């Protein structure tokens, strides 16, 4: 893959008109049981959204990617008044009839208005008798709060036993969700929680927490050893549900956990992505579920500006990366690589050149992983190098740039070779641009195969990225700054877009 011979230029292909740029429309559809609509049966598209970065600058959304030169100011209030924005809402939190203690929890998190997914999902989730829900919404639009508020509103504080279970695909995500439960439930006197992730210090403990958040393997172990009593469970949530049910190992564990829960447990599945084949399967896991789904063309977050660097060969990627970092001050960034070895290698090289980076891969033990993610969250390290283990769900507000050092791929369904993984791409880049912020996603391509994979992903997701020319780094700097300022990928003078744009 890295040989010079692989390098090809595609002057014509880069101008191909197969991905006409379109303003994606937020086409979230909502269907109530008993007639759940498949993802493709979406309601007609609404009007094209206005550009997020055109908002007035009443308060800064923290997107100062290139401090101090570029403060991109976006007014959250403006975004939440745009019916085509996923953060749009006609309701206030108080219209959702949540208990007073939860209203206080919401206020303590600084939330003023619900997002579209919160406004739509919560009335469905809070109904009695409880109903199952499959909920899809773009990355960073507040799905966690939606399922956490439902859970907390159903906890009987007089009963000291597990009543709700959240399963997440990674230790870091489980810890993050638990943190939201604790803050949001901070005004519920006597609320108890339990973190079910591998932890030798809790071995043998009986789980008494009313809300249990963990990874499927640990939860299964706890249940098997009778440390977790599942009889009183009222709610089961699978976050990143498509990933949890799709993956062989996790899927089996989730199914086995579910079998241990009461038959009438309210089952709630959330994700930014539900590929059609997984969505079909989820209906067995969450029968008769209400559904809130998105059309495939609406999955991308508009605040995330897509760019790519085209280098000559695999071994040039590192130099390009370092040059890029040398150009601008980036608040915090995440570099995604395919393999642990690459993460370690990159980390070694960047550290030796004076960059303060941390690395998180599945190769670390739990304590090390906790320490790394905490350092990154607290801003002690500005660059996090990781694999797909952190592609989903992680919410670190200061992340203004995501770099795809390697393009995400997955095993082909035929069992032979690998194919581009658009879902993982979407989740990776979704670590920035959260809840209305502006972020940048930079992808490195270096040969025919990586170019074709990237093109396939862009085509699938309707992305039209801007090419950054590595022969002219001054121009790269100018182009990146212009894109961030203008808030649009196309029509940047001096920045070649991947595909011809039809006006
Ligand atoms: N109503 C709200 N008002 C303001 N901020 C909010 C609101 N709801 C959620 N947020 C914030 O938005 C950010 C993203 O939320 P969250 O992590 O739940 O997104 P998500 O939809 O689960 O994303 P992903 O698909 O990547 O997991 C968080 O920092 C959260 O605190």
From TrEMBL:
Membrane topology, from the record: Peripheral membrane protein
Location in or out of the cell: Nucleus membrane; Nucleus, Nuclear pore complex
GO molecular function: ATP binding; hydrolase activity; RNA binding; RNA helicase activity
Domain Helicase ATP-binding: 124-292
Keywords from the UniProt entry: ATP-binding, Helicase, Hydrolase, mRNA transport, Nuclear pore complex, Nucleotide-binding, Nucleus, Protein transport, RNA-binding, Translocation, Transport
Region (Disordered): 1-58
Top-level lineage group: Eukaryota
Residues of the signal peptide: none
EC number: 3.6.4.13
Catalysed reactions, as listed in the record: ATP + H2O = ADP + phosphate + H(+)
Stored Pfam families: DEAD, Helicase_C
Protein's GO biological process: mRNA transport; protein transport
Keyword Thylakoid in record: no
Domain named DEAD-box RNA helicase Q: residues: 91-119
Function field: ATP-dependent RNA helicase associated with the nuclear pore complex and essential for mRNA export from the nucleus. May participate in a terminal step of mRNA export through the removal of proteins that accompany mRNA through the nucleopore complex. May also be involved in early transcription.
Official protein name in the record: RNA helicase
Naturally occurring in which organism (per UniProt): Aureobasidium uvarum
């Amino acid at each position: 893959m890295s040989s010079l011979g692989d390098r090809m230029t595609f002057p014509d292909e880069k101008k191909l008109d197969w991905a006409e740029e379109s303003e994606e429309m937020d086409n979230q559809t909502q269907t109530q049981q008993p007639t759940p609509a498949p993802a493709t049966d979406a309601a007609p598209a609404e009007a094209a959204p206005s550009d997020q970065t055109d908002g007035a600058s009443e308060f800064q959304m923290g997107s100062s990617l290139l401090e101090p030169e570029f403060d991109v100011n976006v007014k959250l209030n403006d975004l939440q008044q745009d019916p085509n924005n996923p953060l749009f809402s006609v309701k206030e939190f108080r219209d959702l009839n949540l208990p007073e203690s939860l209203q206080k929890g919401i206020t303590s998190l600084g939330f003023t208005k619900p997002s579209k997914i919160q406004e739509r999902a919560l009335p469905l989730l809070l109904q009695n008798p409880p109903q199952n829900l499959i909920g899809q919404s773009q990355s960073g639009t507040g799905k966690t709060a939606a399922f956490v508020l439902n859970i907390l509103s159903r906890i009987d504080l007089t009963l000291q036993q597990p009543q709700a279970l959240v399963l997440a695909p990674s230790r870091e995500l489980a810890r993050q969700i638990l943190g939201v439960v604790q803050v949001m439930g901070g005004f519920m006197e006597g609320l108890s929680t339990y973190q079910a992730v591998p932890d030798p210090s809790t071995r043998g403990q009986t789980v008494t927490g009313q809300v249990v958040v963990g990874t499927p393997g640990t939860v299964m172990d706890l249940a098997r050893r009778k440390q977790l009593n599942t009889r009183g469970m009222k709610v089961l949530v699978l976050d990143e549900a498509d990933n949890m049910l799709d993956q062989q190992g996790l899927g089996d564990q989730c199914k086995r956990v579910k079998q241990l829960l009461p038959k009438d447990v309210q089952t709630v599945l959330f994700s930014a992505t539900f590929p059609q084949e997984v969505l079909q399967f989820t209906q067995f896991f969450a029968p008769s579920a209400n559904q809130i789904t998105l059309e495939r063309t609406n999955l991308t977050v508009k605040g995330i500006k897509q760019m790519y660097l085209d280098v000559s060969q695999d071994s040039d990627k590192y130099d390009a990366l370092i040059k890029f970092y040398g150009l601008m001050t980036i608040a915090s960034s995440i570099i995604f690589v395919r393999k642990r070895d690459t993460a370690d290698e990159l980390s070694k090289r960047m550290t030796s050149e004076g960059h303060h980076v941390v690395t998180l891969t599945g190769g670390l033990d739990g304590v090390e992983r906790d320490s790394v993610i905490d350092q990154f969250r607290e801003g002690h390290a500005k660059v996090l190098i990781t694999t797909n283990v952190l592609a989903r769900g992680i919410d670190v507000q200061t992340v203004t740039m995501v770099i795809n050092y390697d393009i995400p791929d997955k095993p082909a369904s035929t069992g032979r070779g690998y194919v581009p993984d658009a879902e993982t791409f979407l989740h990776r880049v979704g670590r920035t641009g959260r809840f209305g912020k502006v972020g940048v996603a930079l992808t490195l391509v270096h040969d025919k195969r990586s170019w074709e994979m990237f093109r396939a992903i862009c085509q699938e997701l309707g992305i039209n990225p801007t090419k950054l020319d590595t022969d002219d780094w001054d121009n790269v700097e100018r182009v990146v700054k212009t894109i961030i300022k203008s808030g649009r990928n196309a029509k940047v003078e001096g920045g070649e877009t991947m595909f011809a744009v039809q006006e």
